[in-house]
Amino acid sequence: MKKVITYGTFDLLHYGHINILQKARELGDYLIVAISTNDFNMIKGKNCYFSYSERKKLVESIKYVDYVIPEDSWDQKINDIITLNIDVFVMGDDWKGKFDYLEEFCKVVYLPRTPDISTTKIKEDLGLTKLQV
After folding, report:
1. Regarding beta strands 30-36 and 107-111, do their DSSP bridges make them parallel or antiparallel, or are they unpaired?
2. Distance of alpha carbon 89 from alpha carbon 105, whole angstroms
3. What molecular function terms (GO) are annotated for this protein (predicted)?
4. From CA 122, how far away is CA 133, in angstroms rounded?
5. Which of 65, 89, 111, 122 is the most buried (most CB within 10 A)?
6. Is 77 labeled as catalytic in the residue annotation?
7. Which distant-in-sequence residues (6+ apart) come within 8 Å of 58 by Cβ?
8. For all residues of the chain together, what is the average pLDDT?
């Protein structure tokens, strides 16, 4: 069985998220999604509208996703890849080159983002600032 993993916040779930999860799942037989916890998002300078548990429930309901785990730190990726026997690590191409060091452990794939949609854009369109959400 070929296992794939991807990481993200998945706040204000939208069709761009669905597209990347579908494409990630097509690269293997089993898709694991690591969702950034609220505490980790605060370290990254992000505030989420939905709690970790709410975002987890949303992502678990997507048919392409087989398993969801928490992402608590930048440093957990190598451990996740080893302990979960990951074959393919997937991120959006806005991260291109940032995770090439993981190629020692598995294949690294950067998928194109869906044009004209992002959580940041949704927040901007709704007039939500970093302080409000």
Report:
1. unpaired
2. 9
3. nucleotidyltransferase activity
4. 12
5. 89
6. no
7. 10, 13, 50
8. 90
- For 63-116, where are the E strands, in sequence order? 67-71, 88-92, 107-111
What is the rounded CA–CA span in Å between residue 30 and residue 53?
22
Tokens of 60: 């678990």
Residue-level pLDDT at 109: 98
Residues 87-99, buried b or exposed e (16+ Cβ, 10 A)?
Answer: bbbbbbeeeeeeb
Catalytic residue among 2, 44, 96, 98: 44
The single residue of 2, 3, 23, 46 carrying the catalytic annotation is: 46
Return the sign of the alpha-carbon dihedral for residues 83, 84, 87, 90.
Answer: negative
Angle CA(127)–CA(132)–CA(133) in degrees, nearest 5? 95
Region 69-85: what's the mean pLDDT?
96
| Residue 116 region by backbone torsions, left for phi larger than 0, else alpha for psi between -120 and 50, else beta | left
Catalytic residue flag (residue 46): yes
Residue 133: what pLDDT? 45
Contacts of 97 (CB under 8 A, 6+ apart): none
Residue 71 and residue 86: Cα distance in Å, rounded? 15
